[in-house]
Amino acid sequence: MIPSHQSFDRTYESVSSKYYRPKMFSQIRDYVQNCGSCQQAKQPSHSAKAPLYPLPSVSTCELWHKDILGPVTTTREKLARREPPTV
Fold first, then answer.
1. 3-class SS string, 11-69
2. What's the pLDDT band for 53 if we cut at 50, 70, 90?
3. Are the C-beta atoms of residues 29 and 11 closer than 8 Å to each other?
4. Label partner for 23 (CA 20 to 30 A): which of 1, 12, 52, 66?
């Protein structure tokens, strides 16, 4: 059986309810952040980033860009009030 913990909050709550020692908060935080079995089992939190390619070098006013997505609303209330785009 491998010893485990669920998160910093639950581990700290469990240990601090039974024991006390100086610097216990920072020691438990460091232990949870550096736990080897957790690091191996943890799911990646960042998705793969798309590769970046430089834009071709062009003369002034040769390349135009139009933002067709904006403005982007962020809350559900704003999305509910949003009118359909006119083309």
1. HHHHHHHHCCCCCHHHHHHHHHHCCHHHHHHCCCCCCCCCCCCCCCCCCCCCCCCCCCC
2. confident
3. no
4. 1
